[in-house]
């Protein structure tokens, strides 16, 4: 197993993810707690992450000395490289011109780290993000790759099995990075790669039992995949100490609420409180057209309804949430400084203090596709697990302007046809997210021999790996024509369909 010591980089969990992809178990620990974690975890290898600090400043974090006394392989990445060098007697300086983004490195020595990927004398693209750089190597080290901005882009002490790189192998912009990390964990540390989602399931269940003891847990289901996977996993761990509350705000897609209820009650036999709160939500949302106010209203009501249901079942000691890693990271900024709120996500950190429950978040370290794999492992149906992401505020943020029950019904029908056509074309799984947006704009059309004056519907489809950046999906025009014709013919109230060709950035995926 691998211990990843986190110095605060935004992409540390990507290292963990790459290690898990190799079938190797790992844990991430913040540098402040690294010493005790190291002693308890007894890793076979250690990875030191990047981070925003400068090792040239006073009081910046370091790896515990025991890491370098344990005779195990260590890989330092970016800040991890710099602290390794500083701790082992080399030199690091600030004030040089940094490198940010794509850079080319030239391999100057062959190394086990590069086996099967990179050869001496050739150049390869990597992704850099550093201001400081290593300027003198500790005894025993040599450079194995150089770049314009980093004379020590990759270094090694083969005898002690210490490796360090200035670039970020964990990000997708370093095309060979995943294989480089594979070389480290599989070849250099020598781990077999037999760890699986089945093992994660067991370990996660054990951790939940340990955290919760004999306490009671309540879980709010949103209708989405993440909260469902979290609930099923927690139920497996603690059985009927868990109560699930499904707050149905009436803003879900067609057939979705029924699907959740059937899945929990019939398929898993997990006790479920289904609250149909659509009246309350619609009433409170009437007259609200500002996007942030909509989000805040929905967030507040969700908590209110959930809170009163929780009281009805006798309260609980813990609140379970299906928070994923990208949810965590989108709510903090790169260097821990103040970040701008683009949208108020209502399901992240939305727990009011007065609820006084501790959080159980078993998916906090996972990415969306890993949650899906875990869901399949737990026996959730493929059609459910593979569903496109859906925002907490639901269809409310896909109807710019004021929301009414009629508009919701219209959108639900149109959206269902669009998704049906996408499935029929075999495109559902290559698209990250596809949905319809009902615009508060009326245009003139002609149907039969009559004039129509109805709403415009926008179709959206994007590809993405994490929802943080996205490209619009390049449909065949025939497909779009087919979907548009069906929607206009079958859904009353829509007489024109347009397609959104905005990427993120500058757009966002949702319209509000
Ligand atoms: P944007 O629109 O910000 O969306 O580009 C990025 C991803 O996040 C989803 N999204 C949300 N998910 N609660 C959620 O759980 C929210 O309030 C929320 N707002 C947006 C969006 O669907 C996309 O996948």
Automatic annotation (TrEMBL):
<dbReference type="Pfam" id="PF02540">
    <property type="entry name" value="NAD_synthase"/>
</dbReference>
<keyword id="KW-0332">GMP biosynthesis</keyword>
<dbReference type="InterPro" id="IPR001674">
    <property type="entry name" value="GMP_synth_C"/>
</dbReference>
<dbReference type="InterPro" id="IPR017926">
    <property type="entry name" value="GATASE"/>
</dbReference>
<keyword id="KW-0436">Ligase</keyword>
<keyword id="KW-0067">ATP-binding</keyword>
<feature type="active site" description="Nucleophile">
    <location>
        <position position="78"/>
    </location>
</feature>
<dbReference type="InterPro" id="IPR029062">
    <property type="entry name" value="Class_I_gatase-like"/>
</dbReference>
<feature type="binding site">
    <location>
        <begin position="222"/>
        <end position="228"/>
    </location>
    <ligand>
        <name>ATP</name>
    </ligand>
</feature>
<comment type="subunit">
    <text>Homodimer.</text>
</comment>
<feature type="domain" description="GMPS ATP-PPase">
    <location>
        <begin position="195"/>
        <end position="387"/>
    </location>
</feature>
<dbReference type="InterPro" id="IPR022310">
    <property type="entry name" value="NAD/GMP_synthase"/>
</dbReference>
<feature type="active site">
    <location>
        <position position="170"/>
    </location>
</feature>
<keyword id="KW-0315">Glutamine amidotransferase</keyword>
<feature type="active site">
    <location>
        <position position="168"/>
    </location>
</feature>
<dbReference type="InterPro" id="IPR004739">
    <property type="entry name" value="GMP_synth_GATase"/>
</dbReference>
<comment type="function">
    <text>Catalyzes the synthesis of GMP from XMP.</text>
</comment>
<comment type="pathway">
    <text>Purine metabolism; GMP biosynthesis; GMP from XMP (L-Gln route): step 1/1.</text>
</comment>
<dbReference type="Pfam" id="PF00117">
    <property type="entry name" value="GATase"/>
</dbReference>
<dbReference type="InterPro" id="IPR022955">
    <property type="entry name" value="GMP_synthase"/>
</dbReference>
<keyword id="KW-0547">Nucleotide-binding</keyword>
<dbReference type="InterPro" id="IPR025777">
    <property type="entry name" value="GMPS_ATP_PPase_dom"/>
</dbReference>
<keyword id="KW-0658">Purine biosynthesis</keyword>
<dbReference type="InterPro" id="IPR014729">
    <property type="entry name" value="Rossmann-like_a/b/a_fold"/>
</dbReference>
<protein>
    <recommendedName>
        <fullName>GMP synthase [glutamine-hydrolyzing]</fullName>
        <ecNumber>6.3.5.2</ecNumber>
    </recommendedName>
</protein>
<dbReference type="Pfam" id="PF00958">
    <property type="entry name" value="GMP_synt_C"/>
</dbReference>
<dbReference type="GO" id="GO:0003922">
    <property type="term" value="F:GMP synthase (glutamine-hydrolyzing) activity"/>
</dbReference>
